Amino acid sequence: MRSVRKSVIRKANREIKAKFSWKARAAYLIAVLVTILLGLGSRVYSSRLPEFVANHFGDALWACMIYLGLRMLWVNRQLSVALWGSLLFCFAIEFSQMYQAPWINHIRATTLGGLVLGKGFLTADLIRYTVGIVVSWALDQGCQKLAGSNTRRDNDKPLK
């Protein structure tokens, strides 16, 4: 009798987790799309924006999009996993720009390749990426607290 009750509870918990996961993934997807639009807008309308915004926000928003994308993929993991994962990814892309072989420069010459891989290494980009990711992480933490979601979904440990 007791094992039947436990299996029913486990099944209900899995269903709740699945519903939460899809809602959270949808919210992160919307955030990713909004961030992409803002980032592209910061490039297209750079002449109409303040110089500081035009010079720095595009890269920070790109890093923000990477963070949000990782959160969408890893919705049940700790926020710090996406924080460190996105920093590692962004830094790897930036350092890869030191490699200037003809085949990768051909990819970088395309619009999508240039947006994803960048063109050349800039130390300032590392700072922009870090700021974008840390701001995204802080906003994500705030949203988690506002939503009352202060535990991980997979083992009920507090988020860090």
TrEMBL record:
<dbReference type="Pfam" id="PF10990">
    <property type="entry name" value="DUF2809"/>
</dbReference>
<keyword id="KW-0472">Membrane</keyword>
<keyword id="KW-1133">Transmembrane helix</keyword>
<feature type="transmembrane region" description="Helical">
    <location>
        <begin position="56"/>
        <end position="74"/>
    </location>
</feature>
<dbReference type="InterPro" id="IPR021257">
    <property type="entry name" value="DUF2809"/>
</dbReference>
<protein>
    <recommendedName>
        <fullName>DUF2809 domain-containing protein</fullName>
    </recommendedName>
</protein>
<feature type="transmembrane region" description="Helical">
    <location>
        <begin position="81"/>
        <end position="99"/>
    </location>
</feature>
<keyword id="KW-0812">Transmembrane</keyword>
